[in-house]
Amino acid sequence: MSLTLTQAVPQNEIATCELLLDYLEKIGVEYVFGIPGGAIEPLYNALAKSEKRGGIKAITARHETGAVFMADAYARNTGKLGVCCSTTGPGATNMITGVASSFENNTPLLVITPQTSQDKVGKKAMQESGDTGVNVSGMFHFFTKYTSYVTDVEQFEHKLVSAIMSAFSSPGGPTHLSIPADILKSSVPIKQTKTNIDNLLRRPVLKDEEIIQDLLTELRHSKKIIFVIGAGTKNCSGLIAQCINELDIEFVATPDGKSFINPYHPSYRGVIGFAGHKSANRTLQNETVDTVVVIGSSLGEFTSNAWDQLTLLNNKLIHIDDNQENFTRSSMAKLQVSGHIPTILEAILENNKTRFPDNTEKTPDKSLIDKTKFFTHIQSDNQKLMHFEFDEPNKTTDASTPLKPQYLMTQLTRLFPPNTRYLADTGNNLAWSIHYLNPYDRRFTKRRLTKRGEEDRRSESAGLLQICAEFCSMGWSVGSAIGTSLAHPSDPVVCIVGDGSFLMSGNEITVALQEKLNIIFLVMNDQHLGMVKHGQRLNKSADIANTLPNISYALMASAMGIMSHTIETADDLLQLDTNKICERKGPTLLDIRIDAEEVPPIATRLKGMK
């Protein structure tokens, strides 16, 4: 008999699913993303009780992959655990792409899949997915940090705690529990001594004094230093800015590190790697540069300029990271510094103050000067603030029809408010966004603390421009926009997605409708799988299987009850009442007809394919 909302549980016991939610609530989780089904019903019964008392809420996705992308984005944007679930069999296998993406991006997730009851194992039960059927736990083994099949109710709490701890252990990542339906329906004795999950999740800050001294010596003897900012700097973007200001050095960013820097900083020279800028390459190749400090980067194809030995992977490299696995790709570096990145940056700053103790007294407050210049220029012409180079700068002001993607990207930051959060899906729109979209991050230095112990106001934020690096799943942004908006309900979210990706996962837009989320879905409509088409042309390959039908995504959205607009000209774009759009309690879709012949900046990707 399945557990119902009214079924009594012995006074000295607690239902396993309520125990699960109790743990999640203690660590600040607000949502469970998923799709219900028979085997997972006990968890949804517990969620129903939770919602009634104002606790954790269920968010119903339209496809299980979308549920994972929502949970992933929620985790990225809050620093909390992302939680997602499915039913047995195909529900669980549908989650695989999303979980693999989270694994590659080190996002802490808890993935819950049920199994048929244990008394039915091996009897060819419908959707059986244990070790005698389609082995879901076996599949998840390859791209989770922890996966376990709960075979006894006495194991439940221990394995749950183990999964949560593993998700947050460095580097973070997804974990998986496969729980038979009979255990989900069960209850366990209430412990008199409860597990202190907060203590278990607390991580010591390790500091290797010897290697830090080696780093300081290298920096002291360097004539010209360049910083390369990677995604691993998420929790210390303020410290990064302070180091750049006080050491007075130029810096570049990886495509996924761009989220955590100010692209209008006078020392910024652009993106290195996929869809990067020639000014960034030129800066790193300058003959006077003798030290390149890469901070928090995997140095894979996406972030290393396709393993470029001229710019990055050479004996000028110093690699700072808290993920030692990343050092396998920097074996040629003159120094590898492992440890807590904020602690290492603080040591650099402290060393600089020791060397130049009177520096702060003699030098005016650089941050105030920079901010004054910033706000003055922003009112007149924000393009004057660029200190790096676009590939085709003339097209950023070309208002011809059909719309140039370069023009569209540069207009977005003028149309939408500074607190807008952008997500760029995989495809040509990813390349256009990395190269031409530069949201206004006004940080020039470390911000003032808002409370004791807080290092950075956006320390748990995924930044103003979010991408799906490494695994690069198409269609990820639509679900991720849901998770981002739930994490930042006061900020508009702009989801930049190609028509090919939208056809894969655009159904998740109805979740934004149901939850009344302020998300603008910007569909770049060129009737092609654009990156495939241009990749084939640039590689001189066969022009095949890249066309899509001419679909009105505005009409599609309208049929769903979603506000929509078709944008064909620059006037259509500029006449949008974006203030009204950003105040709506619900999504908006913009079907933007772009010039399909514009070639995206994807040369680095083609280089990596050779």
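Above is the first protein from milestone M3; the second protein from the same milestone is given next.
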Amino acid sequence: MGEHQNMDKCPVMHGGQTTSGHSVTEWWPDSLNLDILHQHDRKTDPMGEGFNYREAVRNLDFDALKKDLHALLTDSQDWWPADWGHYGGLMIRMAWHAAGTYRIADGRGGGGTGNQRFAPLNSWPDNVSLDKARRLLWPIKKKYGNRISWADLIILAGTVAYENMGLPAFGFSLGREDIWHPEKDIYWGAEKEWLAPSDARYGDVDKPDTMENPLAAVQMGLIYVNPEGVNGKPDPIKTGQQVRETFARMAMNDEETVALTAGGHTVGKCHGNGDAAALGPAPEGADVEEQGFGWHNPHMQGKAANAVSSGIEGAWTTNPTEFDMGYFDLLFGYEWELKKSPAGAWQWEPVDMKEADKPLDASDPSKRHNPIMTDADMSMKMDPKYRAICERFMADPEYFRDCFARAWFKLTHRDLGPKTRYIGPEAPQEDLIWQDPVPAGNTDYSVEATRQKIAASGLSIAELVSTAWDSARTFRGSDMRGGANGAHIRLAPQKDWEGNEPERLARVLKVYEQLSAETGASVADLIVLGGSVGVEQAARAAGHDIRVPFIPGRGDARAEMTDADSFAPLEPLADGFRNWQKKDYVVKPEEMLLDRAQLMGLTAPEMTVLIGGMRVLGTNFGGSKHGVFTDREGQLTNDFFVNLTDMAYAWKPADNGVYEVRERKSDQVKWTATRIDLVFGSNSILRSYAEVYAQDDNESKFVQDFVKAWTKVMNADRFDLESYQR
């Protein structure tokens, strides 16, 4: 009878969540979501632990691959015909929209992972038809297989397209490794609908610098700005202000912004010859028969000249398959007026244009159409600063070509990291300041003798460990910036950051500068080695004789090779590992801890063990005692976890976000704590890790795991090591 009652019920769970269909965070929205630390678990990777892409790509026949890409560009396919018989514009847009998601505030986004293959990026309104571009590349990806990642292939396709249309590349590096699961925990904005008015992410939409951090694009689903104008209302001066802020948040200055805008719009076209409302669902919402395609157009097949993507319709230049000066010739050679595209979008068209200056129809060479300009294009002419740069480019076409080639290289390589990560025959040798260049460090010195000098220097364990941590914690796996190599903590702006305790830092650096002169070790090496010495001393004091691995060779960057402004976004606003935050924020301290841990490439267990160790080592900012749950401060013990999980204590809120740890029997205050400390006892997942380290038989495991996680942080930016794998 029971079986018959259940026959009509669906036999599988919907959504793969709980039996009720709701996720944990849906039931308890205030619970701490640790998914950001697990989003690229090995279980999602089909390649297996033994596969190393950065080794595999070295076996690629790069010349053969480029030859195939050049051939593809003019091999128009019936299922998606090329505009003017050339896929260059489409490939450039694909590469641009992959790289263009990068934002300097947290280093996330960019083309370095192949993330454009997955939601939400594969279904953003600004990425309409890029599903076709990636599918056109599939035969080449299939042919070269494991020797070329999607991430590398997408960016290379855009670079080769420019080369094919007449612009030699400044250079190109391989080495981008694919992810196998969406980076769904990247914050793209709080809006609940695509292309919601941009007011939602501004304090004041008329003041572009009030855009919410870390965002760079003006609306949900756009790469940059709305091509029709602010909130779809044409006003080139106002749009130009948004362009300036958006590109600055991508680490581009005004000259680079103009070069990218002009060079990007020198080739290809916009597509808006039809009814945008008639398009089918985006790839992520399309049914199985679409096989990963989206935006099905039921009218006129929706191909080539009949395609609809941005809604704007037309090419920018007379010769859209050639890299020339046509963008400037038309923009400044004609007056422009507002019109509507067939799809109903605002666009600028020329007044009384010569027939010979009009580009040919993308499908029918017997027809010509007006070119177009977006509101952002018109800002290049109307914004005084942008106009001056345009005039400089027009007076010196070779200078423009060089500026664009360099800006394109920066756009597509910014998140690849320093030059030491570059792979391939076309990787440029020139040092560029945005690469955060660091000279090679000395390895010809006695590490052991230097250890002894550090130990005898008079610096405390807390000073040694805190300085090493502050130097290394700036590392961001999102764009491979920051870290201890280079000892940028000696230079502006890092030496003055509040979180680095400038007075303490200056005192420690003075000692290291002297030791550097005596030993030949770089200050960068001394900072990291000093942290190792401190950890080893603390471990010995707790009865554990352990050596922290150390590899010399870090260099010391110089002020003239350091772009101080570009380092400003690396400043920590909070560091839960040192129990500090600059001020109160809307975001909870424990959420800021997760964000920092994820950028540093830490797993949840690594984050946990580091917190416990840092507390008992006495490394809290300003010497604070919050969370120092031990009577043996300065010894590397598991006391933090032992006392956190001890039911002899009760936890009660006090003032200013601080909590008191009271003995249950006497009600006397034993310790104080912050939310960061207590979350390791309150969150069920983190508590499970804390209990592991609190066990009587796991004190040695705690020390070993702490040293392993510590070493990972100290070496996160050692891309020069042969053992480097990421």
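Note on the second protein: The two ends are 56 Å apart (CA to CA).
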